[in-house]
Amino acid sequence: MTTHVAVLGAYGSAGSAVAGELAADPDVELTLIDDGDPGGGLCILRGCMPSKEVLSAAEHRFAAQDDPRLVGDVPDVDLEAVVERKNEHTSSWAQHRRDSIAELAERDNVEFIHDTARFVDDRVLEVDGRRIEPDYVVIATGSNVAIPPIPGIDDVPVQTSAEVLDSTDFPDSGIALGLGYIGLELIPYLTEAADMDLTVIEALPDVLREADEPFGEELLAYYREHFDADLLVDADATAVEQTADGGIRMDVETDGETRTFEADDLYVFTGREPAIDRLGIEHTALEPDDGWVRDTMQAVGDDRVFVVGDVNGREPILHVAKEEGFTAAENIRRHRAGESLETYENVHHHVIFSGLGVLPFARVGHSVESADAAGLDFVTATRDASSDGVFKTKNVADGLARLVVGTDGTVLGYQGLHYHADVMAKTMQLAVEMELDVREIPDRAYHPTTPELIDGLVRDTAAKLE
C-alpha cells in the first residue's frame, strides 16, 4: 500500500533532506511543496553561505589594517564587487538546490508544486487550487526574522541581515540590536567594510551564552578594542522613533539610567522565529510552543506530522536541520511499519564567525557548565592562544581554548575562541562523537601550526588523569 507524504518547504535544508531520503522509496508517494522565489533555502540565500562571502572581504582588510608589519594605505572594500560576486555564487548554489528537487520530481512517485500550502484541517492541505490529504505531513518551512516588541518599532524602517548582505551603500551611523550569532558576525562587517559608527544594544548581560564565562568576556574585550562600536550589554531599548530628517532616535535603559541615541539607520539582529504564520496551523490540533515537537520530530497533537529545521524552534543550525530531516524520513517509515521510532540526539556543534573570522568561536560537545549540569566527572584544561608561538607569528595571538575530558579519558567537549577555531571544530567533533580517549590522541604537530593549541590541551588533560 502506497503512503502519501507531503513536504512543506522542500527547497530548504531540512525539507530537501526528507525529500532525498523518501523519493527512492517505491512505497511512498511524495508531494514536494515550496513557494520560494527563486527558492533555495535560507542558508543558501540569506544565511551562512552569503554571509561568509561578504565577511571574507572585510576580514582581508581588517587583517591588513591590524598588522603593524604592513605599511601604506589600507584598501577600501569594494561593496559593489562584494555583492556582485556574492549574488553570482548564491544564484549558482540556489540553482543547484532547485535542480536537485526538480530531478526528484521527474520520478513517477514524486510531484513538485511551486505554491503556498495551507492547512484547512488535520493533515488536510489546500495548495495550487487543490485539496490534498496526505498520510503524513512534514513541515520544514524555516524561519523569519524576529523583530523585538519595542514601542514604535513598527513605525520606523528596519534593516535586517538580508539588507546588509545586499547593500552596496551604507550610512555613516547606525544603531544595532542584538549580539547573538547574527550580530557578532555582521557588526564587525558594518564597522570595517562600511566604515560605520555603531551603537550596539544587547538586552542580556553577556555574549556567547553557550560558552563558559571567560569566552564571552574575551570576545567583548576584543570587539571593544578592534571595532568602532559602542557595545552596551544588559541594556533595554524602551522606545524608538523616526527623526525629522529620516534618522532613528532610540531610548535605552542602561546602568540605571535612560540614554538617548540617534543614528541614520536601525539594524535588527535579534534572531529568528519559526515561519508558521502562513500555514493555517490554527485549523489543526497543533499548538506551536516551546515543546511542540518531540525528539522523534513528531508534532505534539498529531503523530503523523513531523516538524524539522528552523520551524520547530529547537536549534536553528544547518547541519541540525539536515539531521532532523533524515530522522523524520526514517521515522515515517518506522511509523508506517508499526516499529519503534528513533530519537534525534544532537551533539552540540556550533561555530560563530565572530571577529570577521579572525577570532571565530566554536563549541563541540560539553562546556564545563553543561558537564557540571549533566553530573559528569571530568577534568579540564584551558590555554591562551598567546601561549603557542605560532599564533604570535601569524599576528593573531588573541583568544583561548578549553578541553573537557571525562575522568575515564573520554573527550567530552572543546571550546575555542581563536584563529582557526572553526577549522579545528571538525577535528574535535571526531574526538567527541567517536568518544576518543585523550591519552590515545597524538599530541604532536609535524611543523608549527595553529592546532598545536589542541596538542597542548591534550597533554594538559592527559597529565591530570595520571
Q: Care to describe what's here?
A:
The chain folds into 3 domains: 206 residues, FAD/NAD(P)-binding domain, CATH 3.50.50.60; 118 residues, FAD/NAD(P)-binding domain, CATH 3.50.50.60; 106 residues, Enolase-like, domain 1, CATH 3.30.390.30. It has a 6-stranded mixed β-sheet with strand order 3-2-1-7-18-17. Helix content is 32%, strand content 25%. It is an alpha/beta fold and 466 residues long.
Shape annotation: globular
Into which percentage range does the β-strand content fall? 15-25%
What count of domains describes the coordinates? Answer: 3
Would you tell me which CATH topology of the largest domain applies?
FAD/NAD(P)-binding domain
Topology of helices and strands:
Blueprint: E1 3-8, H1 13-22, E2 28-33, H2 42-46, H3 48-65, H4 79-105, E3 110-113, E4 118-121, E5 124-127, E6 130-132, E7 136-139, E8 143-145, H5 161-166, E9 173-177, H6 181-192, E10 197-202, H7 213-226, E11 229-233, E12 236-242, E13 248-254, E14 257-263, E15 265-268, E16 272-274, E17 298-299, E18 302-307, H8 318-337, E19 349-352, E20 361-365, H9 368-373, E21 378-384, H10 389-393, E22 400-406, E23 411-417, H11 421-433, H12 452-465
Helix pairs in contact: 1-8, 3-4, 3-6
